[in-house]
């Protein structure tokens, strides 16, 4: 049965109207972009506070289900979590700042040593045919540009974290009130959701939590343990800047497959400035950490909660890196898991509608 001509004209006019609105918004970007940026920066503490609440809420519920008063359960979990973070910051930040300052002071020395390596590599390949020599020189130049950009990104990221320290200081208060008034937050979300979507929204959120909740909590714990172990290993073996390098290894480890390689690069570069022996030490440490994570920590703590094929994960990481850089790599897998749950719910929704129509 064909649709009336008027329906086609109506649909076409709606599509054209949408494109016109999008075009106008694009033209007005210089006006709304700064406002949106300020709004986003203002909401960052609330996003982080809500995420921490999401991490801690199951622990509070477990204590509450065992008979502990809710306020007491919140206080215990809150004090342990933020107390541990504050104590770690109290011990780690002075060391981190000291090591970053020392790294900044020694950058000219590292750059000079790096140029000597490049010159030695160039001299050792100077007898190759001209075509091969040109290709090697191009690869060396590209690697040097990439390495400089990589180091600049790491330093800029660290400095941004320091600049945000005052904004991040209010996160514990936001998390506390979220935990304290979690039922009121749920009721507010329930009332602002249209009635016809409420049951589906609850089912969808439960499936999302089932899919990524244990993965996120477990992955964060694994990254903390890997960062701590690598820091201790670098310190014991005499590698420079163990706290800084351990922090980088721990943060990048949250990225599946590529994270350990990204995190190992700064440690390998620093080790090369000391000696070949230290470089071998770093390589051994990274292999041991990979074995420990892949065969002990991840199976024990994270498990296989995502049920995603590695090819889909790799594709998501590539897309995430193109869209959002390092942040895109970190968020790629959780976003993929949410998309998977959304597609499954959409499939059942359309199937149910078809059965109703038939």
TrEMBL record:
The protein depicted here goes by the name: AI-2E family transporter
Source organism of the structure: Heyndrickxia camelliae
Report if keyword Transmembrane helix is assigned.
yes
Places the protein is found: Membrane
User: What's the chief localization of this chain?
Assistant: membrane
- Which Pfam families does the record cross-reference, listed alphabetically? AI-2E_transport
Q: What's in the keyword line of the UniProt record?
A: Membrane, Transmembrane, Transmembrane helix
- Ranges in coiled-coil conformation: none
Task: List the transmembrane segments.
Answer: 12-32, 38-60, 72-97, 161-179, 220-237, 243-272, 279-301, 313-339
Q: What does the sequence similarity comment in the record state about its family?
A: Belongs to the autoinducer-2 exporter (AI-2E) (TC 2.A.86) family.
Please give, as recorded in its UniProt entry, the membrane topology of this protein: Multi-pass membrane protein
């Amino acid at each position: 049965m064909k649709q009336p001509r008027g329906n086609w004209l109506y649909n076409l006019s709606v599509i054209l109207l949408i494109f016109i609105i999008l075009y106008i918004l694009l033209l007005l970007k210089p006006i709304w972009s700064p406002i949106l940026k300020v709004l986003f920066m203002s909401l960052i503490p609330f996003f982080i506070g809500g995420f921490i609440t999401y991490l801690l809420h199951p622990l509070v519920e477990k204590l509450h289900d065992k008979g502990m008063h809710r306020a007491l359960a919140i206080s215990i979990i809150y004090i342990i979590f933020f107390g541990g973070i504050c104590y770690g910051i109290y011990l780690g930040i002075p060391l981190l700042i000291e090591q970053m300052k020392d790294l900044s002071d020694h950058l000219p020395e590292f750059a000079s040593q790096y140029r000597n390596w490049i010159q030695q590599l160039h001299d050792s390949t100077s007898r190759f045919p001209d075509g091969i020599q040109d290709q090697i020189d191009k690869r060396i130049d590209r690697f040097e540009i990439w390495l400089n950009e990589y180091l600049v990104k790491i330093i800029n990221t660290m400095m941004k974290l320091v600049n945000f320290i005052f904004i991040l200081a209010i996160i514990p208060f936001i998390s506390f009130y979220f935990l304290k008034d979690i039922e009121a937050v749920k009721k507010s979300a329930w009332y602002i959701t249209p009635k016809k979507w409420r049951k589906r929204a609850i089912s969808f959120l439960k499936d999302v939590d089932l899919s990524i909740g244990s993965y996120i909590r477990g992955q964060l714990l694994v990254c903390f343990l890997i960062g701590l172990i690598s820091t201790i290993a670098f310190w014991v073996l005499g590698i420079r800047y163990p706290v800084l390098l351990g922090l980088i290894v721990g943060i990048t480890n949250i990225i599946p497959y590529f994270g350990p390689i990204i995190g190992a690069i700064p440690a390998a570069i620093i080790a090369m400035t000391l000696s070949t022996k230290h470089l071998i030490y770093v390589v051994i440490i990274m292999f041991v950490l990979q074995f420990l994570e892949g065969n002990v920590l991840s199976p024990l703590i994270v498990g296989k909660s995502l049920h995603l094929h590695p090819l889909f994960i790799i594709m998501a990481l590539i897309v995430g890196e193109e869209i959002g850089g390092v942040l895109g790599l970190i968020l790629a897998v959780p976003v993929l898991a949410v998309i998977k749950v959304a597609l499954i719910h959409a499939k059942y929704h359309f199937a149910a509608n078809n059965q109703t129509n038939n």
